[in-house]
Every structure is written in C-alpha cells, then in structure tokens.
C-alpha cells in the first residue's frame, strides 16, 4: 500500500437561471443537506465530462459547462464517523438545458431552484461551506476559460484497455 496522500477529486456545477440556482437536496451521513450538483471524477473521463454527467444524474437537467468558476480544496471530518477526507473540487458554470424525465441519483431527494436569499437562509443545511462560496464567486464574476483544463488522451485509454484487456 502506498503512503502517498491523495485528495478526492470532485466536480460541481453552479447553475443559474433567472436569479435562481439549481441545487440538490440529498441524504448524507450528516443528515439531509443542500449542495450544488456535484460528485467524483470517474476513471476515463475529463473534468468537463464529469460535471455534465453529475448534473444529469443529480438534477435530470442537461448542463453545458462554459467556464471554470474556481478550484476549491477543503477538508471534511465526519462528526459521525471521524472519517477525514480532503476534497479538490473543480467548479463550473454554464448553460442549463432541457429537463429529462428520469430518476435522480441514489440519495438525491429532489432538485430545487433557490434564490440567493433562500440559499443564504439555509446555510446551516449546506453540505459544506463551499456551497455558498461557489455561488458568491460566480456572482463576483470569477471565471477561467475551459481551455485551461487539459485532458491527455491517455486518460481515455484506460477505458480502451479495460475493454480489450
């Protein structure tokens, strides 16, 4: 076993429409919480592909990332289990598309549109402090072009190797 420490890589989507933000209400080990559509990067996918997939799985909405809002690193220690995890999260903004008639991911209770004031009012139920930070950064106009993200073709070769192997 390796002694090299590795953070968990995640993606999140800040999705805004008409002054409201698309969030998910989800079951967590700490109870029911609000979060952006978010999740872990899977093998053989780019960060952009991951955020599109997570948005669809958790909200049933199409999402097209246009910019990177920020890269956030945070540490989470579960009050219930004592589990200690560091997350490196890439947060995107973009365009929301059609809503599909499909079940939401396991643990997601509902997708909900909230105003900024509603989001601030329920801070005690946010999955992490990053939920409001991401929206604040989005509203402050923080953006990086997606061209800053480079996914080497070797990432996709993992899937090819698994199929042929």
TrEMBL record:
Task: Give this protein's Gene Ontology molecular function annotations.
Answer: nucleoside diphosphate phosphatase activity; ribonucleoside triphosphate phosphatase activity; thiamine diphosphate phosphatase activity
This enzyme's EC code(s): 3.6.1.-
Supply the alphabetized keyword list: Hydrolase, Magnesium
Domain Nudix hydrolase, by residue range, is 4-137
Q: Which PROSITE patterns match?
A: NUDIX
The protein's matches in InterPro entries, at most eight in alphabetical order, are given as: NUDIX_hydrolase-like_dom_sf, NUDIX_hydrolase_dom, NudJ
Q: How does it assemble?
A: Monomer.
- Protein name (record): Phosphatase NudJ
